Amino acid sequence: MFNGQVTDIFFDLDHTLWDFERNSALTFEKIFLQNGIHVSLPMFLQVYVPINFEYWKLYREEKVTKEELRYQRLKKTFDTLGMSIDRSMIDRLSDDYIRYLSSFNHIIPHTKEVLDYLRPNYRLHIITNGFGEIQHKKLKNAKILHYFEAIINSEMAGVKKPHPRIFELALAKTRVAPENSLMVGDNLEADILGAQAVGFHTLHFNPTQDSNHDFCKIITHLSEIKSIL
Question: Transmembrane residues, as ranges (predicted)?
Answer without folding.
Answer: none
